[in-house]
C-alpha cells in the first residue's frame, strides 16, 4: 500500500517537471522559477501525504468503529430507559411473583430460555436459584430489572405488574450485585454515592450523603478498609477500580447497591470470582445486606446458599424441585445428588459445574 502511495508521489514530481518544461518551451510561462515554485508546492504536499500515509489504516478503522457506535446510539430500545411514566408506590414490601413467563432473547428467538416459568419469592426471604449454565437463572435477573420484557406471562412486584411501574423507581428498589462489579474512575465516595441517583437523596446536602454512604459501607463490611486508605472515602480508586482488590471492589459495589435502601436485592454469582478469604468477608457482607430484604441469589457454590429460605433447582428454563436445604436433601433428588458430588469432589470450593448437574441427574435416573 505504501509503495503505491510513494510511486504516485514521485510520478507527480516527474509529471510536474515535464509539464513545466513543455510550457516553458512553448512560451506559456516566462521563467524556470515558476517551474520550481510548482515543484516546491508538490514537495510540500508530498511530505504531508507521506506523514499521513502510515495512519490511513487507522483512519479506516476509526471510521468503521464510529459507524458502529453511531448505529448503536441511534438504535431505539424496546424499553425506554428515560421513560418517566408509570406508578411509583409510596411503600413496597418486596413480594416478587413470576407467573407463566416464557422468554427468548431477541438475538435467538427460536431458543426458549424460560418456558412457562412460575415462581413466588416471599418478601423479606432469601431465595436461591441453582442450575447449570443456560438454565435461565441470570435471565430472571434481567427480566426483574426490565432489561427485557417477557414474551408471555407476568412479573409482579407487590401485586403490580412491573411494566406498569416507573422504570427508575423499579430499578431503585430492585438492585443488582454482579460477579464482576463495574466501578467508575473517581473516589470511593463517588462510586457508592452513585447508588443514590434517582432517589430522594440524589440532591441532598453532601453531609447527609456522606452519612448514608458510610452507613452503607458499614453494612457491606467496607468501612474499615476504606478508612485505612490514604484519603479515606475521598481516595481515588483508578479506572474500573483497579487500585482495589477483588474483594474490596465487590464490597464497594454492595455498598452502592444498598445505599438507596432497596427492597429487593439480586445477587448474581457475587462471590464466585474471589479467593476463599475475600469470599468469606464478602459473603458476610451479603448476609448482612440481605437481612429484611427480598433476596434472590444465583449461585453455583452450594455452601453459599444452604441457609436460604427456598432453594430453586432449574434446568432448561423450568423448575425441577424447590425447598429448603434440609427438605431437598431429604427428597434425595437432583439437589441431594449435587451435594453428594460436591462433598466428594470439591469439598473446599462447593462449586457446581454443568458436568456435576448432569451427573446428579444421571445418578438419580439410574437409581
Number of individual domains: 2
Envelope shape: elongated
Query: How much strand content do the residues show?
Result: 15-25%
CATH class call of the largest domain: Alpha Beta
Main beta-sheet annotation:
6 strands, mixed
Estimated helix fraction: 40-55%
Summarize the structure.
This protein has 367 residues and is of the alpha/beta class. The chain has 13 helices and 10 strands.
List keywords for this structure.
2 domains, ABC_transporter-like_ATP-bd, 6-stranded mixed β-sheet, 4-stranded antiparallel β-sheet, 367 residues, ATP binding, Rossmann fold, single chain
Fold blueprint:
Blueprint: H1 2-25, H2 32-52, H3 56-74, E1 96-103, E2 114-121, E3 126-131, H4 137-144, E4 152-157, E5 160-161, H5 167-173, E6 174-177, H6 188-193, H7 206-219, H8 223-227, H9 246-258, E7 264-268, H10 276-290, E8 294-298, E9 310-315, E10 318-323, H11 325-331, H12 334-345, H13 354-366
Parallel strand pairs: 3-8, 3-9, 6-7, 7-8
Antiparallel strand pairs: 1-2, 1-4, 4-5, 9-10
Can you give a write-up of this model?
This protein has 367 residues and is an alpha/beta fold. It folds into two domains: 2-74, no CATH class; 92-367, Rossmann fold, CATH 3.40.50. It is built from 13 helices and ten strands. The chain has helices spanning 2-25, 32-52, 56-74, 137-144, 167-173, 188-193, 206-219, 223-227, 246-258, 276-290, 325-331, 334-345, 354-366; strands at 96-103, 114-121, 126-131, 152-157, 160-161, 174-177, 264-268, 294-298, 310-315, 318-323. The strands form two sheets. It has a six-stranded mixed beta sheet, sandwiched between helices. The radius of gyration is 31 Å and the shape is elongated.
Amino acid at each position: 500500500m505504501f509503495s503505491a502511495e510513494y510511486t504516485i508521489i514521485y510520478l507527480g514530481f516527474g509529471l510536474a517537471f515535464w509539464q513545466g518544461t513543455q510550457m516553458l518551451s512553448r512560451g506559456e510561462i516566462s521563467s524556470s522559477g515558476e517551474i520550481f515554485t510548482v515543484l516546491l508546492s508538490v514537495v510540500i504536499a508530498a511530505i504531508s501525504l507521506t506523514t499521513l500515509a502510515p495512519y490511513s489504516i487507522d483512519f479506516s478503522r476509526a471510521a468503521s468503529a464510529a459507524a458502529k457506535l453511531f448505529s448503536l446510539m441511534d438504535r431505539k430500545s424496546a424499553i425506554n430507559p428515560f421513560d418517566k411514566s408509570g406508578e411509583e408506590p409510596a411503600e413496597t414490601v418486596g413480594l416478587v411473583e413470576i407467573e407463566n413467563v416464557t422468554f427468548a432473547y431477541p438475538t435467538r428467538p427460536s431458543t426458549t430460555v424460560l418456558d412457562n416459568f412460575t415462581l413466588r419469592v416471599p418478601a423479606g426471604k432469601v431465595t436461591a436459584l441453582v442450575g447449570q449454565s443456560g438454565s435461565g437463572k441470570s435471565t430472571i435477573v434481567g427480566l426483574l430489572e426490565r432489561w427485557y420484557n417477557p414474551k408471555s406471562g407476568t412479573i409482579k412486584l407487590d401485586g403490580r405488574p412491573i411494566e406498569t411501574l416507573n422504570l427508575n423507581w423499579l430499578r431503585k428498589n430492585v438492585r443488582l450485585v454482579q460477579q464482576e462489579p463495574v466501578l467508575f474512575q473517581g473516589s470511593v465516595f463517588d462510586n457508592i454515592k452513585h447508588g443514590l441517583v434517582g432517589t430522594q437523596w440524589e440532591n441532598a446536602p453532601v453531609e447527609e450523603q456522606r452519612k448514608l454512604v458510610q452507613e452503607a459501607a458499614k453494612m457491606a463490611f467496607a468501612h474499615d478498609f476504606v478508612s485505612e486508605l490514604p484519603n479515606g472515602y475521598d481516595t481515588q480508586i483508578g479506572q474500573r477500580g483497579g487500585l482495589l482488590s477483588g474483594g474490596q471492589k465487590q464490597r464497594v459495589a454492595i455498598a452502592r447497591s444498598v445505599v438507596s435502601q432497596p427492597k429487593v436485592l439480586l445477587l448474581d454469582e457475587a462471590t464466585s470470582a474471589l479467593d476463599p478469604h475475600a469470599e468469606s468477608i464478602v459473603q458476610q457482607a451479603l448476609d448482612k445486606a440481605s437481612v429484611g430484604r427480598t433476596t434472590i441469589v444465583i449461585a453455583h457454590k452450594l455452601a453459599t446458599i444452604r441457609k436460604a429460605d427456598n432453594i430453586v433447582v432449574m434446568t432448561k428454563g423450568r423448575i425441577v424441585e424447590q425447598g429448603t436445604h434440609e427438605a431437598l436433601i431429604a427428597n434425595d433428588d437432583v439437589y441431594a445428588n449435587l451435594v453428594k458430588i460436591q462433598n466428594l469432589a470439591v469439598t473446599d470450593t462447593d462449586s457446581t459445574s454443568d458436568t456435576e448437574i448432569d451427573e446428579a441427574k444421571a445418578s438419580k435416573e439410574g437409581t
